[in-house]
Specification:
mainly alpha, Rossmann fold, Tyrosyl-Transfer RNA Synthetase, 3-stranded parallel sheet, two-stranded parallel ribbon, 5 strands, binds adenosine-5'-tetraphosphate, Trp-tRNA-ligase_bac-type, Rossmann-like_a/b/a_fold, nucleotide-binding, Trp-tRNA_synthetase, Tryptophan--tRNA ligase
């Protein structure tokens, strides 16, 4: 079985974007791939996190992943800081990656905003840590949203340069696995910005923990234009908000925007938003109930994560120790 690795930051409550773009696609992989999924707390602190909230969010994220269908017995599920191999390999990659490569990363530009001088050095080298996450397991497939494609290309550049610099074929080439339906869910307030768990506006996103009334309200308030829904996807041109809402219903229903428009094309947004809110509530409420149940027994959740970390370390430790040997570090 091919090995897949993917991670998610405990930088807030998981959103519908994280769910449709990533988590939901991870679930079937447990049967087809050797699957490793990680709550990436080292990545989360590249922007300030309140320590108490980070701890709570890390557990919440783990509970959300299990509630969405990740089974700690069928995949390896763990917290990044519990497996030291990630940080060790990331340092080596900091010394392999070139500044010019990092300067091109659009996520850094988006997240650092205008005040780049004040961004953390960690945010800048975030892609090197992400490369280490994947290469520490010699994973070859990485399921991510399409916003992460550029980081995966960089991870391949780093692997190639490492192999070249040390005269080995040690790190394999990795391939992104990108979902086509709802690959990128956009903000409910601005169709040109992706939905993000750390966006300042809670109205911009659906959190997996939002109750029925909150979901209905957020969808009702979602930005749209005055035109009715187009009859065909070609009518989305210049209408990013319409494209987004239709994409969300298609994603939730495991269908295509074409199929959604065959049913709802020509309707006004008022009526369509009601259908969408109802579908979201029906889809998310069982996940929320399971998440709450898991969070009631923190001891059991922590034990599952500890076991996941042991299994992850058993794979990553020999790979990263070999990388250190190749670099010329003395054995411990
Ligand atoms: N809006 C989105 N649409 C589709 N996929 C998305 N992902 C994130 N947002 C969307 C995918 O979720 C996975 C985990 O992402 P992450 O938590 O590691 O970091 P992120 O991409 O930076 O996600 P957020 O929600 O925007 O977090 P913050 O606000 O902390 O930066 C990835 O596979 C990503 O593609």
């Amino acid at each position: 079985m091919q090995r897949v690795f993917s991670g998610i930051q405990p930088s807030g409550i998981p959103t519908l974007g994280n769910y449709l773009g990533a988590i939901r696609n991870w679930v079937p992989m447990q049967d087809t791939h050797e699957s490793i999924f990680c709550v990436v707390d080292l990545h989360a602190i590249t922007v300030w996190q309140d320590p108490k909230e980070l701890a709570a969010q890390t557990r919440e994220m783990a509970a959300a992943l299990i509630a969405c269908g990740l089974d700690p017995h069928r995949c390896i599920l763990f917290v990044q800081s519990h497996v030291h191999a990630h940080a060790r390999l990331a340092w080596i990659f900091n010394c392999v990656a070139r500044l010019g490569w990092l300067n091109r990363m659009t996520q850094f530009k988006d997240k650092a905003g205008k005040d780049r001088e004040s961004a953390s050095a960690g945010l800048y080298v975030y892609p090197n840590l992400m490369a280490a996450d994947i290469h520490a397991y010699h994973a070859v497939k990485v399921p991510v949203g399409d916003d992460q494609k550029q980081h995966l290309e960089l991870a391949n550049d780093i692997a190639q340069k490492f192999n070249h610099d040390y005269g080995v074929e040690f790190f394999p080439t990795i391939e992104p696995m990108i979902q086509t339906v709802a690959a990128r869910v956009m903000s409910l307030r601005d169709g040109s910005k992706k939905m993000s768990k750390s966006d300042a506006s809670d109205q911009s996103r659906i959190n997996l923990t939002d109750d029925a009334d909150t979901i209905a309200l957020k969808i009702r308030r979602a930005k749209t234009d005055p035109e009715p829904l187009p009859e065909h996807v070609s009518g989305f041109e210049g209408r990013p908000e319409a494209r987004n809402l239709v994409g969300i219903l298609a994603g939730i229903g495991n269908t295509t925007p074409d199929a959604v428009l065959r049913e709802h094309g020509g309707k006004g947004f008022g009526a369509f938003k009601e259908v969408l809110a109802e579908a979201l509530v029906a889809h998310l409420s069982p996940i929320q109930a399971e998440m709450n149940r898991l969070l009631e027994d923190k001891g059991a959740l922590d034990a599952a994560l500890r076991l996941g970390a042991q299994r992850a370390a058993a794979i990553a430790e020999p790979i990263v120790t070999e990388a250190e040997r190749l670099v010329g570090f003395l054995p411990r």
